[in-house]
Design a protein that fits this description.
three-stranded antiparallel sheet, Arc Repressor Mutant, subunit A, 9 helices, 2 domains
Amino acid sequence: MNERQKLGMMEAMLFANGEPVEAARLAEAMRIEADQARELLQTLQSEYDARESGMVLLHFDGDRWQLSTRPYYGEVVKRILDTRHNAPLSPAALEVLAVIAYNQPVSRSFIEQVRGVDSSSTVAKLLERGLIEEAGRLDLPGKPVAFRVTDTFLRVFGLGSLADLPPLHEDDPQAAPPDNEPQQMEMENLV
């Protein structure tokens, strides 16, 4: 099997899977070494980028890879799929996502403490959309459910990992609000 066939095989598996998949799992399916699979993935990623393809190969933490539509073409893809039923995220949903992404895993009470309002319906909607998920229970009184963002969140916002999130504060320590200002201000500035 030549290199082109291996790249085609890799591409076919990524397309068929639809979700992020570990390089080791792809290597196992192809009966090749994991390092060779990573090289093929990087080659495929470079080819998509070089020709400005409508597809992009995303690399997530944990050496997971996913074939996705390039964000630049998102609007036209939405039109063909007729996704009008998917309303855009509300400012409240964006605030909750920011609180979770920057502090995960967090409980609902933590989210509400930061935002200053009840967030149960917003959390439920984000769970429904698959942007957040339960991450077990926190070791706190009452063992509250903890939430974290999902790979879907990363994909929707064009992130490879949470490390790609913009910093909360500039490097200038004077840019950070004093400790006595409510954290809600930070979240409002993010959105």
